[in-house]
Amino acid sequence: MANLDLPVIPQHVAIIMDGNGRWAKQRGLPRTIGHNKGVEAVREAVKAAGETGVKFLTLFAFSSENWSRPESEIEDLLGLLRRFIRRDLADLHRENIRIRIIGEREKLRSDILPLLLEAEETTRGNTAMTLVIAFNYGARDEITRAVGRLARDVQAGLLKPEDINSDAIGSRLDTAGIPDPDLIIRTSGEERLSNFLLWQAAYSELVFLPCYWPDFDRQQFEEALRIYAARDRRFGGLSSATTAVVG
Ligand code: FPP
């Protein structure tokens, strides 16, 4: 375990891995090389999270909007994810890491869905850390599907409209059972959430790092944890410094 000496470590870190294309462009390389390097950064992130004591790591691997990219790039990204699961699943399992997949899976292709299900099934009992892979994920789509489930449950008489509260919604999201992210990191200098965990991000600390995703490493991860540790989380209340003075 790394000795970071921070007063607080986030329980759940979520990452928008952005900038693979720009990293490649900067070097005159095809975008696919950027995505390849991005997978190495994924491995670094998983290792760093485990070693710093983070219990949940969520990675935005493929958004429901990414299908609008050129066919060849979609194939590259799907191929990388398939290879990542085939090659790294045994290692992740050995490291006692549980894998959860969030996102719409109904209409997923037969060359990817069984792999995702196998990854979840194989690692179901693991307890060291949970790696949540957001694939074919969009927060509005996730919330829309949850609202549909709520409506069906009300219609079936399983739930009264007056019993609808944030827990009733949260338990029908893909992230049911996963605590909200304490820290959301986005690389590449862009400062937006891009339809990522919109419900769950209500009180998340957001940290935007200038580096492109392929350059993300242990040092960058620790930098984000340091920024997080220096923040004063208030959840709509008063700051701990204020309450300490006021009593
Ligand atoms: C953003 O870069 C990155 C993605 C759309 C995909 C991230 C995917 C990986 C790192 C590989 C597969 C994932 C796993 C979990 C193994 P961009 O292409 O949007 O970059 P740009 O904004 O510079 O064009």
UniProtKB/TrEMBL annotation:
<comment type="subunit">
    <text>Homodimer.</text>
</comment>
<comment type="function">
    <text>Catalyzes the condensation of isopentenyl diphosphate (IPP) with allylic pyrophosphates generating different type of terpenoids.</text>
</comment>
<feature type="binding site">
    <location>
        <position position="18"/>
    </location>
    <ligand>
        <name>Mg(2+)</name>
    </ligand>
</feature>
<keyword id="KW-0808">Transferase</keyword>
<feature type="binding site">
    <location>
        <position position="67"/>
    </location>
    <ligand>
        <name>substrate</name>
    </ligand>
</feature>
<feature type="binding site">
    <location>
        <begin position="192"/>
        <end position="194"/>
    </location>
    <ligand>
        <name>substrate</name>
    </ligand>
</feature>
<feature type="binding site">
    <location>
        <position position="35"/>
    </location>
    <ligand>
        <name>substrate</name>
    </ligand>
</feature>
<dbReference type="Pfam" id="PF01255">
    <property type="entry name" value="Prenyltransf"/>
</dbReference>
<dbReference type="InterPro" id="IPR036424">
    <property type="entry name" value="UPP_synth-like_sf"/>
</dbReference>
<feature type="binding site">
    <location>
        <position position="186"/>
    </location>
    <ligand>
        <name>substrate</name>
    </ligand>
</feature>
<feature type="active site">
    <location>
        <position position="18"/>
    </location>
</feature>
<feature type="binding site">
    <location>
        <position position="31"/>
    </location>
    <ligand>
        <name>substrate</name>
    </ligand>
</feature>
<dbReference type="InterPro" id="IPR001441">
    <property type="entry name" value="UPP_synth-like"/>
</dbReference>
<keyword id="KW-0460">Magnesium</keyword>
<protein>
    <recommendedName>
        <fullName>Isoprenyl transferase</fullName>
        <ecNumber>2.5.1.-</ecNumber>
    </recommendedName>
</protein>
<dbReference type="InterPro" id="IPR018520">
    <property type="entry name" value="UPP_synth-like_CS"/>
</dbReference>
<feature type="binding site">
    <location>
        <position position="69"/>
    </location>
    <ligand>
        <name>substrate</name>
    </ligand>
</feature>
<keyword id="KW-0479">Metal-binding</keyword>
<comment type="similarity">
    <text>Belongs to the UPP synthase family.</text>
</comment>
<feature type="binding site">
    <location>
        <begin position="19"/>
        <end position="22"/>
    </location>
    <ligand>
        <name>substrate</name>
    </ligand>
</feature>
<feature type="binding site">
    <location>
        <position position="205"/>
    </location>
    <ligand>
        <name>Mg(2+)</name>
    </ligand>
</feature>
<feature type="active site" description="Proton acceptor">
    <location>
        <position position="66"/>
    </location>
</feature>
<feature type="binding site">
    <location>
        <position position="23"/>
    </location>
    <ligand>
        <name>substrate</name>
    </ligand>
</feature>
<feature type="binding site">
    <location>
        <begin position="63"/>
        <end position="65"/>
    </location>
    <ligand>
        <name>substrate</name>
    </ligand>
</feature>
